[in-house]
Fold:
Amino acid sequence: MERIGFIGVGIMGKPMALNLLKAGYAVTVHDLNRRPVDELAQQGADSAGSAGAVAEQSDVVITMLPDSPEVEAVVFGPDGVLEGIRGGMLFIDMSTIAPATSEKISKVLSEKDVDALDAPVSGGDVGAKAGTLSIMVGGTKAAFERALPLFQVMGKNIVHIGDAGAGQVTKACNQIIVGMTIQAVAEAMTLAKKAGVDIEKVRDALLGGFAQSRILDLHGKRILEGNFQPGFKIKLHRKDMNIALQTGRTFSVPLPGTAQVASQMDAIIAQGNGDLDHSALALFLQELSNVGKE
Ligand code: NAD
Structure:
């Protein structure tokens, strides 16, 4: 079995690394935060003091970090992955980052005879714990096939989309649809509430019709209950909308709906609520329409 290195064991990375351990893989972990590293060590993981040291002890290195700058720092920075890799290794970044960064990493690592995959996920911490993530993958077919047994431990719907960066483009598309659908659900529920209609019944009625969606179901329930504990933090979704907008600029594709939702996310973050769940988009609309205050 391949020896796995896992860098970034936060909300998502920790349960993903744990599933690899449970499947019998030897896993070496590293994170700036000591606590999840210690918790994984109690479950049988090895730990290493730097990303470079993880790479030295591994055949496959996986990263699950917040954003492009962190992934670049871990790969190219001092004591980074690049300092510990050997030809024939495989690098898999499962964070949500800019497609251009994934392409750059793939290019630099290929010069060292190391394959790289971008493999962002969807499914949240629930999917990470259950091993049911959707995984969208960019990179060569050979690298994808090598990684598939690992992906099958962490996920269920695993699709090889295309070359380096294609996984991240797919994830950006996912985040556009999720962000704008939350906005649609939030607008509809704010209107229903202001019009004095029972929003619980509105949601029940719509869940049986053409407007049905998982977002109406799950985020609609959060909006209904006013429960904005994360889930997926609005500041992380704002980061993903930025990736989508940047990619739109690269390819000259206007994304007006994405830009508008991103700007509403900015307003919520400016109010100090960036750590709330992304369904808190509804709060902004409720405030504008004076819902709940009359
Ligand atoms: P998180 O903040 O919980 O975890 C990130 C971890 O990376 C932290 O433990 C942090 O200490 C560590 N880290 C940061 N910089 C580091 C460095 N230089 N070296 C070593 N460790 C470092 O975030 P998360 O929710 O686990 O998200 C990780 C990625 O997955 C993000 O790109 C996010 O957009 C994506 N994602 C998250 C979810 C979700 O529901 N949380 C769902 C799908 C995708």
Summary: The domain at 4-162 is CATH 3.40.50.720 (Rossmann fold). Residues 7-13, 30-33, 64-66, 70, 73-74, 95-96, 121-122, 124-125, 232, 236 surround nicotinamide-adenine-dinucleotide (CB under 6 Å). Strands lie at 4-7, 27-30, 46-47, 60-63, 90-93, 115-118, 121-122, 133-138, 155-162.
